[in-house]
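Why this split exists: single-chain examples teach little about how molecules sit against one another. For that reason, every record in the complexes split bundles all components of an assembly together and asks for one structure covering all of them. Below is a record exactly as it appears in the raw files.
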Amino acid sequence: MTSPGSPDPHGVHPAWLPDEAFRPIGSRRTLLRGGGPLAGTVHEEVARACARYGGSVRRQAGGRHDGDGDGGADGGGPYDLVLALTAAGDEGSGEVGIGEECYVVSRRDGVTVVLADSAAGLLYGLFHVVRLGEEAFGAERPAEHHRPAARLRMLDHWDNVAVHPVMGQVERGYAGGSIFWCDGAPRDDLTRVGAYGRLLAACGVNAVAVNNVNVHAAETHLLTDRLGDVAAIADRLRPYGVRVHLSVNFAAPLALGGTATADPLDEDVRAWWAAVTTRVYEAIPDFGGYVVKADSEGQPGPHAYGRDHADGANLLAGALAPFGGVVHWRAFVYDHRQDWRDRSTDRARAAYDHFAPLDGRFRDNVILQVKHGPIDFQVREPVSPVIAAIPRTRVALELQVTQEYTGQQRHVCYLAPMWSEVLGFRPWGPAGPWVADIVADDVGGGGLVGVSNAGDDPYWTGHPLAQANLYAFGRLAWAPSSDPAAILDEWIGLTFPPSAGGSGGNDAAGGDDGRLREALHEIMDDSCGTYERYTAPLGVGFMVRPGHHYGPDVDGYEYTPWGTYHFADRDGVGVDRTRATGTGFTGQYPPPWSEVYESLARCPDELLLFFHHVPYGHVLHDGSTVIQHIYDTRFAGVEEVDRARLRWAELAGLVPAALHARVRELLAEQLRCAEEWRDQVNAYFLRKSGVPDSRGRRIP
Amino acid sequence: MTSPGSPDPHGVHPAWLPDEAFRPIGSRRTLLRGGGPLAGTVHEEVARACARYGGSVRRQAGGRHDGDGDGGADGGGPYDLVLALTAAGDEGSGEVGIGEECYVVSRRDGVTVVLADSAAGLLYGLFHVVRLGEEAFGAERPAEHHRPAARLRMLDHWDNVAVHPVMGQVERGYAGGSIFWCDGAPRDDLTRVGAYGRLLAACGVNAVAVNNVNVHAAETHLLTDRLGDVAAIADRLRPYGVRVHLSVNFAAPLALGGTATADPLDEDVRAWWAAVTTRVYEAIPDFGGYVVKADSEGQPGPHAYGRDHADGANLLAGALAPFGGVVHWRAFVYDHRQDWRDRSTDRARAAYDHFAPLDGRFRDNVILQVKHGPIDFQVREPVSPVIAAIPRTRVALELQVTQEYTGQQRHVCYLAPMWSEVLGFRPWGPAGPWVADIVADDVGGGGLVGVSNAGDDPYWTGHPLAQANLYAFGRLAWAPSSDPAAILDEWIGLTFPPSAGGSGGNDAAGGDDGRLREALHEIMDDSCGTYERYTAPLGVGFMVRPGHHYGPDVDGYEYTPWGTYHFADRDGVGVDRTRATGTGFTGQYPPPWSEVYESLARCPDELLLFFHHVPYGHVLHDGSTVIQHIYDTRFAGVEEVDRARLRWAELAGLVPAALHARVRELLAEQLRCAEEWRDQVNAYFLRKSGVPDSRGRRIP
């Protein structure tokens, strides 16, 4: 088990690719038809499974498949599974191509067949068969055509090369160190990068940005003299169809190149980026592109030269275009030195105000990367109005898989339901497209980007159950309309196969398996809702401790320059973002949302305090007052955590002991922290409002 | 100007010892009678002044003085100044000794005479003549006997040897790096340590603890294998009569010695400390002793072994006693992991509760080092009740010269008036002794300890005007009943001698000198009051930003484990520490204070919220309500800062330009920060109370 991509070189948890998941394939006879490195990866996967479970695999590197499962003239058949590249394009057969990264899976006459036009499609098809498990070899199944919704399904790593004095090795990382970098250098052993690529391929991710969007001094050099470090990572990810992207410093020509400026309209600067980018592609021919955080939170950008974001993005896009690369230009731009006394400035407005006027000015290979909400990854925000505001610009939706504001991988918080809600939001109302349609559009879409939650932790994600978020991100990027509970179910089945439990012996009956599955759904399905219930209420956001963002501090950001306020006083709470009396942010939405959010009566309760400042006695749609809702939900959230804790305790013996112990400890911390949230939020609002809990519970 | 102790080896500001201060001595004829190293320092000081200003000095190393100024049989007279060791003790003359460190100064028949029993006294006498300036050589003056009130006048440096990842090189240091340590090692060039010793001698300080009371890994080794580093510092300070003390790790025997325990009653541990301390005195014969922070904020201590603070302190005292050393054992012990929901625990009570029961159990060479207030160096606290609670224990008063909670040397805050108030407090009422009497008592007193505000900043203290705090600490330690304004006047005269101004030419008239003096008094005399007016009101304390403690955050510590709360709600604010209805802290004081503080009517306004929780409408002794007082004083404080800023602007040309510019920039920052304090505190209380400002000023 020491070959490249081996899932457990150093006691690392296999996540959703344990050996057992390959038993159905590994115990059968497989024919693989197709050449090239990615097909080699497919072969290696099957061969390893067969070595373990007694099956066989035969590879015909040159051949392409004719559609049946008998092995044709190859002899040695029949096979249970045929994985084959099509003849599409080769033979002028006239058939419509399956498509890049796509595959068709079917079962007929006892043979399961996966066809793809490309080896990448074959690899995704293989993992589809893994997900199906024994079912893949059961009843006949008609041909199903699988294609990824979005072409770009990317994870951004906020990993620093050099340990940052404040932010550490991984900014907002809660899973140990970086799998790429350690103390200023690439890791000596990049085995784990290969294992990571394998996990990503198995959930559908095809791109990784290998360094933090805040590009510090050491990281700036990755673009030039330390490019070899990036190439080494690319070499490890390439066998799994994952491309590398690089976060770059907009001022790199100044910092590295000795130009007199980083002005995007300067010829020297343009020439510098062109030359540097050419060298990047010489070293990494399948390089994906650049990620840029410019003029944001102190990062350099085009504004210093009187240029705008379009000028800046197009500069890099021009350098990348000859090679097919893209620029991910982040829309996370706002005034982080706001005067809290200035009530007219609204951070929620900032991205729209900056970027909507630039629509149509960006080159085709610029992708505007937009956080899902207008503020910053809070557990409850409306969908960003930017997504609907720039129809002539490619948009990527940015989701935060790392749990900066959602419990930092010490709390169970399965994020897929929240992401699913965002993807399913229709910016122009019921008749219009979903967000998913916009970002996944073949021409105008920029795909999905997640900020990775993975690190060098043995469980990859710190909290073992946080693996489900990484998995679900990939699956939703591939198929945004998937049901979050179904994705979770898939993850459970793969990650906790029946024989993986501590006590064993439950393969046949499935009783333990069913108990585990049921319990995990109970613990995880609505865990994001639970988190919301014990933290900041009704969409108001940002009641976290400044700096590290873990745990409550109701006034922590209230008098700061960060633009994140709740304006609670003795009479009420919330941010008036209406056009009538507030900041006018509601006007950034098209109808019907511009009207729905504007209206106190129609605004959804869960977003009430995001859009309106209301008295504590304001009555919600369920008949409760705002203040009583605050109390009730805080108490409910804590009770839910406690139930999860007890539920998990019952699972001892059904999962590996070490994993059980870690989750048990984390649930104890989650309960402590949830109680802290409950008590601080409730005490804060009781002290301010003077309204007692109608049920007389203790508020300290 | 490169001899040891030179005040400006690298462009360092001379503070209160500019060359000009030595002009009156340096332009005259001096006779020095006395031998030994400290007398050598006196000689060097006078000789350097004479080299600059044309006077002369003659030294008679062996002789002792007979009391007149004609030089006796020495020839070469007459002299303007005679500095002489007495014959006391030598010749059985029957006269009463002047006393250790003491001196007598007089002027008769045109000769100014300083007599002392010891060379240390002679050195202090020399600096007395420097302070007098030309006046020392004017009219006749009868003999004045000067003796330090406290024998121990110590500065604690919270300097780390290795840079601490959170706290840096100097914990709570606002004046650059450490003058002793740099990046894990002693400074290559310790010249500045000598210059520091000279400044300390000139204001009366005679002891320095060279490392932080939080003793981390590297610093633990100073006691043993890195003792040479401490000895090198001692060598630089010895010529100025300043002894070194060392902060030690109570668990040092475990960490360094390989003992199985650090139990203070264990024989191996006792033997370890005895042996180690013997080696310390072999290296540093005049070593002062140990400083210990034990069982406090995570530092190890005797509690781990079921022993108490007396057991712990006596262990070290036993090791030091044979050599005349002392233990400074800090009384700053409290639960820093308090549950904020627990209203019964009161951090203010902690030191008394820990130490009062131990009174009488400490060895004679143990000094309990007590912070001046019961909490932690807030700008307004009552005097700690511990000082009166342990009559059979030696007590040192700990003051914070470094401005952790008083503007961090970015704000002008002359602390001497606050210290003077503490020293003048009479714990048993008008008929009883002062705090100064208790801590400076020859037998039972432990002296004064200040946490130093000096670093490697060119001005020593970051803010040039913060030098006055260092100077005033020394002067108050020597003479606690001194008037703070007189000390400031002294400091102004020394630091800004007439010829030191930028424009010069004002020596004769003194007009510019008078303007500068008047302005500095206006800016500084009540600057601590100003600071109090724009920060936390009425003694409530701790409204600073958590962690770094700079700038406001009204609720910053409200829901934390640190025990520092104000309990503001929509109805009122303050901490009920009465016996009747609160934590009972008032009962830790003897009468009359136990009654005064208990009584809402008699409690001084400035401490009201320290002792009582009152409604916002509570009427103060001046007729204002609490809420209106909060508004009024916040506005007043800011206006005072603005006046100081404008006043300083007028002084351009009267002080060196660089110094003027630095103070001007700092005053701009102080004004910004004061406005931030005003607006946050006012907005917070307006939002909570709903009571508008009666004068209708803008509260954001």
